[in-house]
Specification:
The protein has one domain. The two termini are about 15 Å apart. Helix content is about 75%, strand content about 0%. By secondary structure, the chain is mainly alpha-helical. Helix 1 packs antiparallel against helix 2.
Length: about 50
């Protein structure tokens, strides 16, 4: 795997984790909203690709 691929994957992971933190905001009540749940799940899925 080339360095560019690795660096791109790292950037993707960081972006996904940051987005999850923004959406969740350390507030469990945010998990009651389906749109926020979807956003978190999609970022977890993207993180794992």
């Amino acid at each position: 795997m080339g360095n560019d691929v690795i660096f791109n994957k790292i950037e993707t992971i960081e972006r996904c984790i940051n987005r999850i933190k923004e959406v969740y905001d350390n507030n469990p009540d945010n998990l009651k909203e389906y749109t926020k749940q979807d956003s978190i799940i999609l970022n977890v899925i993207t993180y794992n690709l």
